[in-house]
Structure formats: C-alpha cells, structure tokens
Amino acid sequence: MAANPSFSGGYIVRSLALGLNVDQAVTHPQQHPQPQPPQPPHPQPPQQQQQQPVERIERRQSLTQRLGLSSASSTKGKEQQLADTATPSSGGSGNDEDIEADSQHKQQQSQRVARSKKQSKPAKIECVDVCGSDVYVGTSNGRLLHYSVAPVSVETEAAPAITLVQAVDLLGAYSGKRVEQVLALPGQNKLAVVCASTLAMYQLSDLTPLATAVFQPIRGVSCASLDERIPRSADVEAAGLCVACLRSIQLYRLTATEVRLEQEFPLSSSVASLSHYGNYVCLADSETYKIIDIRKKRSSDGDGELPLLPTQQPFQDPETGRIVRPPRPRTLVVGANEFMFLTSSGADMESDTLGVIVTALGEARRGTLQFTAYPKSVFYDDPFVVAVFASGKVEVHDTSQPDTTLVQSFAFADVDEHTRPKRLCSAVGAFVAIESVVSETIDADVSSIAGLCQLREKEDLKRDAVEQGILEPSGPGKPLSRVSRARIVAVASDALYYVVREPPILRVTRLIDDQRIEEAMAIVESAQQAGSPARIPGAPKTAEAQYCIQLASLTCLSNMLLDDALQYFRRGLMDPRALLHLFPDIVDYLGPLLVPFARIPMPSRLRAMFCDIGDIDALISRGAAQLLAEDSSAEQAASLASALMANTLEVLERYLRYCRSAMRSEDGALDGLFSPDALPVIDTALARLYAVNSRHDKLCALLQDPASAVVSDLAAGYFLQAKHYYYFSLVHKAQGNVRGVLDAWRRIIDGEWADERFGGLNEYLQYVQLTDSQSTMLTEFSWLVDQDVGAALQLLTHLTDQTVELIDADQAFASIETQGGDGPMRVFIERLLSAKHPRATHYMTYLVTAYVRQIAEYYSVDSRTDNLVQGYKRAQADDLRLRFRSYLRTRSSVDEGAALHTRLLGILIDRQSQYDVQAVLESLDAETVAGASMHIERAVILVITGKTDDALNALVFDFGDYAEAELLLAAPDNPKSLARLCPQEPPPDLPRSVNRLLRMYLDIGKTRGDDDEMSARLVSDLLRRFADVLDPSVLADVPDHWPISIVEPFVCRHLQALTAQEQTSDIARSLNQARAFASKLENMHAVCDKGPITLDYSQTCSACNKLLGSSMFVFISDTSEIKHISCL
User: Fold this and answer.
1) Among 341, 334, 336, which residue's Cα sits nearest to residue 285?
2) Per-residue model confidence (pLDDT) at position 46
C-alpha cells in the first residue's frame, strides 16, 4: 500500500513483514522457565528508607463497584471473601500443605486451559520493538520471537526477507498469556517484557531471563515507559525505566550489569497510561490526567502532582442499560518536558478527540490537535504526531502548526482485518533507503547496453553493491539523504509496517520525473550550499547530490537538450565510460578496452535509464521524429539526424575533454572520482572524436602529448581504415616509431595516399632532422633525391662528413643532374668536397663549369652586370688599389652574383689541380663572349695555364682591375698575387715589370680615349710609387696635354737625385713660381673673359650628369661646361 503524502517529507508505509505465522515460527522453540515472583518486598533505595510504607490493595475495584451499581453488602462480602482467600490461617503445617496442593492444582488447570485456548485460537502479534535489523515480537500466546530482517527499500512495497533467529515460550504463570509490551535496550543488552501484568527482564542477545540476583520480576504492572530523555543506542551507558505497579510508581536505573530501583512513590489510583521524560512523569489514572514532579516526590516538597483534566469514566447506556467502557487513556512525550494526552467528547472510539499538549508545568504552548476519532494508538515523531484508528486510517498532525495541524492522512482500508494495524510501536536504529541510489555492478556476460537490456528481461541479474567512493553519502535527516530513520512500527495481527518519512531525495527525483529539472536542481543546489563546504572542490558534496544531477543529465539527454545535458554531466561527473556505451561505433572501436556496461558501477535507476535510451542512433531517430513535421521529406529527416548526430558527438567530445582535464589537474582534487582505467578510454575515444569533428590542432596536441594515454593500436587501426593517413602517422610518431612515420609520409609524398593535412616536404624534413639519426637521414636522402632535389639538398646539410662519405655519389649525381640543374649540382658537389668524398674531385670540373653557367644565368638579367661593374668602378675611383676580388667579398652578403663570383674564384684559385683547366677556360670564354663579366675568372685560368700576358691584358684592358694586374706583374711574391698560381715561371725583374705596367697604363689612354683621366691617375700613381725604379726617360712617353702635376713628383725625385740639394731646391722653387704664375695668368684670363666661377657640392658633370665629388674636373671656357677629366 502506498501513501500519498501531501506535504514535503510526508510519511509513507513500507512492509516490514507480512503474513507472519507466529504459531509455527519454530518446530522446537527454546523454552526458558519464567522466574517466579519474589516473596519479600523490593528493598527501597537509601533515600526512600524514611518514607511511609506503600499502601497496597490485593485487588482493584470492579467496574460495577466503581460505578456504584452494586450493594454495599455484596461488595463487602466479596471483599471479605477475597480477604479470606488471601490471608492464610493460623493452623498447622497440614493446612499449609493443603493450600500448596490446591495452588499447584489451580496452576496446572490454568496451563491446560491456556494450551487449549492456544490450540483453538491462532496467535497474533501484540507488540513489537525494533533495533536496527533485529525485530522483537510479543505474541498473544505468550511467546517472544526474535527476527532478523533484510534492509527495507523505499522503492518496493514488497516485504523484505525475514528470518527467525530465536523463539521463546514464556512458561509458568505466563504460559499462553498475552505479551503486552516489549522494550529493547541495546545499550544495556536488556529486553523488558510485560506479560500477565508482570514485568520481566531478558538478555537482548539470546533472550535468556536475567538471574534473580540481578532482577526479580515485578507483579501488578499496568504499564511501563522508558525515560525518553535518554536515547536508546549502544553508546548510552544507562537507561531509565518507569513502571506503574499497582498503586505506585517505581523508577529503575538499568546498566549492562545491574537493574537498580532508585525511587518509588505511591499513587491514589491505578495507572492506565504512562510517559516519562527526565524528572517528570505524565500519567492517566482512573480519575485524571496528571503530571508528577519526581524531584518533589524525592524531596517531600509538596505532593509533586499536577492534575490536568479528568479521564473519561465508564457510564451506563440509558437505552441498553449496559456499562460502556471508555477508550483507554493515552499519554506520550512530545518534546523536552512536554506531554500530550487525549480527551474525547464521547465515550466511544468514534467521538471527536483532542490531543492536548502541555509542558511539565501544565502550560499549553502549542496548538491542540483535533482527531476525527479516538486513536487506537499514537506516536510522536518530532514534530509530528502519528495516529492510527480502528478503521485503518492514519493521520499525521504537525504540532508546530498553530491552527490546522492535519498535514497528511492515508488508510489501510484495502487490507483485511489481520493485516490492518492496531498499534504503533517504536523502532531504534532502523532505516529505510532508496536502494537505486547505491552504485552497483552486474555480474553478466554482456558488454553492451542492448545485451544487458535483453538479458535482464529473461532472468534476474546478480547485483553487487559498490562503495560510493570518495563522495560521502548523506546521513539520515540531511537535505538529500536517501535514507530515512524508521521510528514507527505499525503492528497488525500478522503483519508489521514501517510508517516512515519519505527520504528527502524522493522529492527531487519526483520533480525530475515530471520534467521539472530546474526546480529539482534548485533543491540540489540549496542542499549543496547548506552545511560545510564540499570536501572536493568542483565535485558534488554527497553521493546523493551526484545521483540527482546525473539523473537530470540523462533526462535532458533523453529529451535531446544537449547543452543542459552537458552541463549536468560536468556537475554530476557522469562516468564517461557509460556515455561511450551509447555510441555503438565507438564501442566497436574501443573493443575490450572499454569495460562492459554491466561492470560499470552506477545506481540501478541510472542503468535503467541508459537501457531506455538504448543507443545514440535510436535516440536521434526519436528526437528527429519529434522535431520534424509529419509531411517532412526523407532528405529533411536525414539532414536533421545528421545535424543532431554532429551536435551529440560534439557534446561527447567536450565532456570527455572536461574529464581528461579533471583527471590531469595538478592539484589532483578529483582523483578517485573516475576509475583509473577511464583515462586510456577517454584519450583513445577523444582521438577518434577529434578526427570525426575535424579538430586537427586538438588531435595533434593529444597525440603528441607526452602524458597521452591513447592506445596506439586502436587509434592507428581506425585512422588507417578511415583514410586519415596523416593522423595514422602521428600515432606512430607518438610511439617513437620513426620508420612507421616516414613510411607513411613517403606514401603520401609519392601520391599513393592522399591527405591534405600533411605538411608536405617541410614537415617531412623537419621531422627527419629532429630524429638526429645519421643513418635515418642518409636513408631518407637516398630516397628523397629521386623525389625532390631541393629537399634532398636541405637534408644534405645535416649530414656529417662521415655520413656524406657513404653517399652513392654517382646515383645521386645522376638524379640531381636530371632534375635540378646547375644550382643543385653545385651545392651537392661542394658538399662532397667539404666532406672529402672519394668521388668529389671527379665532379670538380662540372662544379666549376656549373658555377660559370650559373653566374652567366644570373647576370643574364638586364642591369645586374652593369650594377656590379659600375659599383666597382665607383669604388675604384676612390681607391685605385682596390681589387675586384676584394670588392666581391664585400658585396657577397647582399649580392648573390658577387657571392657566386667569390665562391668560383675560391675554387679556381685553391683547387686548380682538381679540375680540367682547358674545359673551364673554354666555358669562361664562351660566357664572356656571351656578355657575362667573367674577366677575372679568365685571368685566373690564364695565369694557371702560364698565359700571364693574356691575363694582364684581360685585367688591364678588358676589365680594368689595375690593382690585380699590378700584384700579378709587380708583386709576384705577395700572397694575394695571382702569380703564385704559376710558380714554374721565374718572375721578371721589377724595373721591367714596372716599365711594362707603365706602358700598359699609357696605352689605356691611347686605346680608350674616354679613360685618359684614369690613365693619367694610374701613371701618376705608378710614377710616384716606383720613382726609384723607373728611368726618367719614360717622361718622353707622357702625353703633352697632361698637366705637369702628373709627373711633378717623379721629376722632383729625379732632380733631387741628379743635382745637389740646393740646386734642386732652386729648380723646384722656379718650377713652383712658374706654376703659380701660369695659374694666376690663366685665372686672370678666365676672370676677364668669363667672370668668376662659383661651384658648390650639388654641381654635376655636364657629360655624365653625376656629382663632381672629389674627382678632378675641367672648366671649358668656350661652352662654360664643367666636366670630369674622365668625361672629356
């Protein structure tokens, strides 16, 4: 039967035991003789020794007597008869023997009567007390039963398994009598039993009676109550027991080793109901409800009794004349020093009844409860009072409400009389829980969700509970607890029920079931914020919170609310392995790496939701059908399904990425929230998802991450099958499989495989170089030289000399010659030369001719040659001793042609024995004829071949490298001179060489009239530097139109040598005067004829339009033009 609570945290009913047959509980029950009542009175505690002896009556008045309906004589006669029976005569021992025999006879007769009643009438459950999983039952036929019950689940109304542990038949005077009350005290290992108005004590562990030295049964007990200020738990050392015995109250202190009477005080009437809290006792006697202050009773400070309201009295029905007994009075503790008692407007069970709540001082501080009838039993579960009625109805009243206190009602009306509750008893340490919240695994030989769904329909599956892990569960009473403390047991004739508040988590799950996700998550968030902060930042505070969030995430996923699902996946830390099981393709891809779905720990309800979803294809089909209109085409459906699949894969990728970062966090805060074997699964699945979702950068980073846990074989197999060849190579790269990477890239470069993600030869070369393996680079060079000469030559620069010596030069030469041309060939041969390859000299002539052709090709572009030569000429104008070779070196870093010239000259000069000079000369002649400026190279070859004169002509007349010619002819011993290239010829003497050079300089002006200025400068410089070598007769060859300044230093030098110093000085002075006079005369003529001439730094030559600079210039008076001397 299910209760329908109308308020948050309402009560529900769950079966504890149904159809208990207490008659046939055991075949051979253990029988313990019931201890006989003691003969002497109980000793009083020390503080009570001075009190008056308690007045006792042997028999209470009958109902007729109390109503005054019988004559005094008959009453007196009955009392006299009772007194005669109770008072032994003063006769001898024979009379005592007769009395004893009569007593034994009556006892045997009562046992026979009890056994016959027991056989004729089935036994019923009368009272119960529960301690955890132990249930102690008292029956109507004088039997104590100890059961062990399995955990009770909120999610099923079926009764759990219950096992009889022990059964005890109460013998002696209590045989077959109704057990009125059982009170279990786990902390003291005691079980108090009230049967036949006698209270006895048993060991709770084995139901053996306490020894009479420890406790002697108490007769005349009408009711008993525990001190509810002291909790009933195993941690409590002592408990308090209040017993109403005849017309007195006895207070006992119970420990594990003793039961001690601590206080006793008399009452004026017998007690019908009793409640005890601390220093106060609330009771109902035959006349009134009252509260007794135990302290006042102990100190004799007043009577200590506070009357409340009269109890209902029996009355005579005026119609039938019969005596009507009112319902039994009820009292109970409803808080600290607070009590409730019932009062009715009528004398029957159907009358309206009030529950009056008062303090120990009699003050009513809470509202009065209104019951529709007189309850058969009531129980307080703070702050609620639960009442059960004869009809099977149950009412729950909230004592904290001032007015309307009824908050819930439900009924047992659909059950028969035997299973309808008649009494509410207490339970301690008992709980009911939602088992579907507990993580579990299933022992099943299936790996997929579909297989598990099919299997669970055919057979019951073996489930193994799993510890919650590092998330602590919520305890009873917490906002999201899955557990509720069971404190109320409803007792029927053959059934037991828990009346328990529903676990708080049920409200959240109910909202989720109603698709009210936001409301449910608001409750979860509120519970998360309450109390202490989460032990693990970023994780749910409790396992129940995680369960609720995961439940919401799967609900959102079922409704295709993908963004919300992702949010709750992250907050609830859903096991990523479980989500992967929704994707059949990924499950097949991961294979045995992915743990079977049945073995993934998760609550049963979550597993059921996974089974309801099935797989992602089915989910998308359902989602697309809901979103599409009925008249949608198949193309529209396919397009929508494709978009939903892409979105779903993106959500999966993002969540796996989140899980990976959480597991890889530096602080390790989330360690343990996921299974350690989840990381390889996550990384391997991400590798595929990155490829599917075109996350190139992320996939490359994942595969190249040193901490990556990608299972290479699975990823490589998928990439190869999906034709993601580049990613296939990256897997090998992550493994350090260099050969696998290069083989894959070779096939892509060859065109066998196509993958645009590959970075081409640049990436290929970079990787080969990073391998830092000479053998690998040599192998790849040999292959690459047939594919791309330029790339092969780049790789060649990273080979050591020892590795270069191992190259098959002829094969490489053939490939380069076919594909590359002179430039690549030149680079290759130079590298062979630098490494001293055995075949290097064989290709030297080709190298030189290749340089010649490359230089010629370079200078085939217009103006390149002119720029180089003119640049040299301008520099030479400032420095006549500047050689072209020196100028080339200064220009090599900025002019490629100059660099080629420099390298070629270096080879020609340094390796003249390693190439064919004649072939090189022919090549130079050919390119020179074609217009390339190769004069300096020709001069070098001519010197090497011994044609020094031709070399001089080339240097002086063809190109104008005068400094180089001067070194060759006049300074053959200079290390920079080309003369060292042909040491077999003896150098000419210096005078002859200088004279020859002078003649050549003079011929420059004759053969090239435009170079007369340069000729004059060269001659002047030569005369100045070699005045001691040249004969004065050379002055005869100096042109007459040259200024006297050209030869002046030379003439002065010789005059000084021929005449005395004084004469030389006169001559020099005369020459200076003559020169000065001539200069003044010319200036006077010019000033008279043309006026003064003014120049500035911006003045240009009229012939070449260039600045005059520091060069010599001439003013032509006829035309008023200013020109360089060299431009005349």
Assistant:
1) 341
2) 36
Q: Quick one: tokens of 151?
A: 């955990």
Q: What is the largest CA-CA distance in the chain?
A: 197
Q: What is the DSSP string of 293-304?
A: EHHHHHHTSS--
Alpha-carbon gap, residue 492 to 125, rounded angstroms: 7
Residue 224 clears pLDDT 90, i.e. is over it: yes
Rounded-to-integer distance, Cα 687 and Cα 712, Å: 10
The answer to whether 565 and 553 are in contact (CB under 8 A) is: yes
Tokens of 321: 């004349």
How many residues belong to the chain?
1128
Confidence of residue 128 (pLDDT cuts 50, 70, 90): very high
Residue 583's identity, in one-letter code, is F
Q: Which residues contact 455 (CB under 8 A, 6 or more apart)?
A: 444, 446, 461
Beta bridge partners of 153: 433
Q: Using DSSP bridges, classify how beta strands 423-433 and 152-153 pair: parallel, antiparallel or unpaired.
A: parallel
- pLDDT above 90: residue 953: no
Q: Is the pLDDT of residue 68 over 60?
A: no
Determine the pLDDT at residue 672.
Answer: 59
- In 3D, which of 624, 623, 574, 568 has the Cα closest to residue 602? 574
pLDDT digit string, tens, across residues 77-97:
444 443 443 333 333 444 445
Nearest-angstrom CA–CA distance, 484 and 468: 18
CA atoms of 433 and 476, how far apart (whole Å): 9
Residue 1116 has pLDDT above 90, yes or no: no
pLDDT tens for residues 440-495? 777 766 667 777 776 655 555 566 655 555 455 555 556 667 777 888 999 888 88
DSSP 842: G
The tokens of 702 are what?
């994942």
What's CA 892's distance to the chain center, in Å? 59
**If you average pLDDT over every residue of the chain, what do you get?**
79
Strands 221-226 and 384-388: unpaired
When comparing pLDDT for 30 and 138, which is higher? 138
pLDDT-derived band at 348, boundaries 50, 70, 90? low
Number of H helices, E strands in the chain: 37, 37
Q: Which helix (H) or strand (E) holds 341?
A: strand 338-344
> Quick one: 336 exposed, middle or buried, by C-beta within 10 A (0-12, 13-18, 19+)?
exposed
pLDDT for the residue 51: 37
Start-to-end CA distance of the chain, whole Å, equals: 130
Q: Which of 810, 911, 799, 796 is nearest to 851 (CA)?
A: 911
CB contact set of 791 (below 8 Å; sequence gap of 6+): 761, 764, 765, 784
- Measuring CA to CA, which residue among 598, 611, 579, 584 is closest to residue 682? 579
What tokens appear for 499 in the block? Answer: 């009346």
- Which CA distances in Å does 296 have to 44, 228, 241, 1014? 17, 20, 18, 143
780 compared with 840, residue with greater pLDDT:
780
Q: At CB < 8 A and 24+ separation, what contacts does 855-860 make?
A: 855/897, 855/900, 855/901, 855/904, 855/927, 855/932, 855/934, 856/927, 856/930, 856/932, 856/934, 857/822, 858/896, 858/897, 858/900, 859/897, 859/931, 859/932, 859/933, 860/932
Contact present, 1 and 13 (Cβ < 8 Å): yes
- Helix 774-784 vs helix 809-819: angle between axes, to the nearest 10 degrees? 40
The span from the CA of 766 to the CA of 741, in Å, is 13
User: Using CB atoms within 10 A of its CB, is residue 160 exposed (0-12), middle (13-18) or buried (19+)?
Assistant: middle
